[in-house]
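Course assignment 3, question 2. Fill in each field.
Student: A.L.
Task: Predict the tertiary structure for the chain below.
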Amino acid sequence: MTFRFHDTVPVDTGTVSVAFTDRSLDLGDLAPDGFRGAALAALAEATGATPYLMHQVHGSDIHVVDDPAEPRPDADGLVTSRAGIALLARAADCVPVLLVARTGEIGAVHAGREGVRRGVVSAAVERLVTLGATDLRAWVGPHICGSCYEVPDRMRTDVATAAPATHATTSWGTPGLDLGAGVVAELGAAGIPVVEVGGCTREDDTLHSHRRDGAAAGRLAGVVWRTP
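Answer field:
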């Protein structure tokens, strides 16, 4: 398989790879079991690591992965200091965020509207620091842009009160949210360099989008793993 985006980063304990999938894989919970199983098998072959998913609940809980055989947790962030585990953050408009420390710790975050409001990215950074992470970098994957993400005005106010950079107006003049801008601002405030991969999921039909495709939408993923 090929990734939409793939980069490698040397760290103190080996090499970390960061990647984002596209519509060629469907990693959603509603995908037929065989199809999702095939997608995970393709990821395992491409990464040489064991894929690990979370049951994303639009919150700010972070789970530390010690064993890839663990049951899938209810969380919106995964972190680990172990090699050989590919952490996945899945999305179909929300923001997948990948974190890498020079010391080798890694994280994958699903930053949806409620997660951004609650500071899920900062929670993941804090958990990585408790694992000993230093000199963090971040990659922000494809997501719906502020010009396409229409929300009620009260919702925009609620989220933007917590994350001011999310305040947006759609291209047709209605209240909107730019979750990616909120994530980038949050990382910037923490002094973490960011690579913005780019791509609006609603506008780019090579990406999965719930706003565009509704219940039929699949899920792309941000994937991060360390090779010792």
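Instructor remarks: The chain has a mean pLDDT of 96. The chain has one domain: 5-142+193-227.
Grade: pending
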